[in-house]
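Lecture notes, part 5. Sequence design as translation. It can be helpful to think of inverse folding as translation between two languages: the language of shapes and the language of residues. The source text, in structure tokens, appears below.
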């Protein structure tokens, strides 16, 4: 439980630092078009991390409920665990998908950044 709380705080800190980095990066960027694109992109990353954290928080609650049901050993609670575990499985798939999207978007951002830098060097 303590490790989960630590990870939750670390994840919140990372999402906030990404948002802060996006703000400071866009505030000093000389190109307004790039600035708006970076800001939108960082906001997208931040929103995705919030979605991931929300699903992970839900999973934590589901796991607690599954454990309580298991400890009670009543038939109804054991049957309820089947649905809870299925929801957990679906949530894990959702987290994988969100992280996959993040990875793809992050890679695209750096490819675009490299292309922009190359184009800027050619103009000079």
């Amino acid at each position: 439980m303590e490790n989960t709380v630590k990870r939750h705080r670390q994840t919140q800190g990372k999402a906030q630092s990404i948002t802060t980095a996006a703000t400071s990066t866009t505030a000093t960027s000389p190109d307004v078009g790039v600035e708006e694109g970076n800001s939108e992109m960082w906001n997208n990353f931040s929103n995705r991390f919030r979605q991931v954290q929300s699903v992970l928080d839900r999973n934590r609650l589901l796991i607690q409920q599954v454990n309580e049901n298991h400890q009670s050993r009543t038939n109804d609670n054991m049957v309820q665990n089947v649905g809870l575990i299925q929801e957990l499985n679906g949530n894990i798939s959702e987290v994988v998908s969100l992280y996959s999207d993040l990875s793809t978007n992050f890679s695209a951002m750096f490819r675009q950044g490299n292309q922009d830098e190359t184009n800027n060097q050619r103009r000079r």
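The translated text above is only one of many valid answers, since several sequences can fold into similar shapes. The longest helix spans residues 75-123.
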